[in-house]
């Protein structure tokens, strides 16, 4: 029964290559970016001609960026713990990976995209400007991932699919509103570029953060743990042999 569970849970996060992982999650990115642009259009329409678009987008970006960190932390921990149960390594991966890739997806990529359009973009790093708030949501995602990993392995697939879609969707929204908040005020004039660039800005960092990096690190940690167990077993057998002699 246990072997069936492990065989069921592993393929959810397993991909033959990085390209395979990117192609698998490409439809998620297309749908998420399309929905994020629809949400942007609806929100901006309800604002009417208030002239305070950047201010509203700025506030929305902060909220969405924090939600992105929360879901990313959950997904990273859940994927990593499918391979390794080491708590110190899980904490390290769960803190470092979401911090790096959420910043890349939500801030760095939109910033570079604005520069490509020759816009006066501003670089705003939430981890520096709002350290306490970011760390709070980072820890919450870490704890949530730990709790979900304690459930039956048969449920991992559903958790990973759900958290990954929410991760990509929230990331799409955060990246979109960063564009508008920090330089791309007349976003509708660049809708084609915005769509294509956001798909790339979302699918690559999110796939790396949710699947590739934690899976790679988890597999390495698993190999290291097994090697250590084997070495400890050999040392124990040698000690027993000495006592016998």
Describe the protein's topology:
Elements: H1 2-13, H2 18-47, H3 53-80, H4 87-116, H5 126-129, H6 131-149, H7 156-181, H8 191-244
Question: In one word, what is the shape?
Answer: elongated
Q: Count the helices. How many?
A: 8
Specify the structural class: mainly alpha
What is the helix/strand order?
A: HHHHHHHH
What characterizes the major β-sheet?
A: none
Radius of gyration: 21 Å
Mean pLDDT: 79
Beta content comes to under 5%
The parts where pLDDT drops under 50 for at least 5 residues are 1-13
Helicity level? over 70%
Number of strands: 0
User: What's the N-to-C terminus distance?
Assistant: 41 Å
Describe the model.
The protein is mostly helical and 245 residues long. The protein has eight helices and no strands. The chain is elongated, with a radius of gyration of 21 Å. It has helices spanning 2-13, 18-47, 53-80, 87-116, 126-129, 131-149, 156-181, 191-244. It has a domain at 55-224.
What's a concise summary of this model?
With 245 residues, the chain is mostly helical. It is built from eight helices and no strands.
Descriptive labels:
245 residues, mainly alpha, disordered N terminus, 83% helix, single chain
């Amino acid at each position: 029964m246990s072997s069936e569970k492990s065989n069921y849970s592993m393929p959810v996060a397993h991909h033959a290559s990085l390209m395979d992982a990117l192609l698998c999650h490409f439809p998620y990115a297309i749908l998420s970016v399309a929905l994020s642009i629809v949400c942007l259009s609806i929100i901006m329409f309800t604002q009417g001609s208030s002239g305070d678009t950047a201010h509203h987008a700025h506030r929305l970006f902060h909220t969405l960026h924090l939600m992105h960190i929360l879901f990313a932390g959950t997904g990273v921990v859940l994927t990593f713990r499918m391979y390794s149960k080491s708590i110190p390594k899980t904490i390290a991966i769960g803190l470092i990976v979401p911090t790096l890739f959420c910043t890349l997806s939500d801030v760095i990529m939109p910033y570079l995209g604005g520069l490509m359009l020759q816009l006066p973009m501003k670089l705003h790093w939430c981890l520096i400007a709002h350290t306490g708030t970011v760390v709070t949501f980072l820890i919450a995602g870490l704890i949530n991932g730990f709790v979900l990993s304690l459930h039956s392995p048969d449920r991992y697939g559903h958790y990973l699919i759900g958290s990954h879609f929410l991760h990509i969707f929230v990331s799409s929204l955060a990246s979109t509103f960063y564009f508008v908040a920090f330089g791309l005020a007349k976003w509708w004039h660049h809708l084609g570029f915005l769509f294509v660039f956001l798909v790339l800005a979302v699918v690559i960092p999110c796939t790396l953060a949710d699947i590739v990096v934690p899976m790679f690190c988890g597999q390495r940690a698993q190999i290291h743990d097994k090697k250590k167990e084997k070495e400890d077993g050999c040392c124990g057998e040698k000690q027993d042999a000495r006592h016998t002699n």
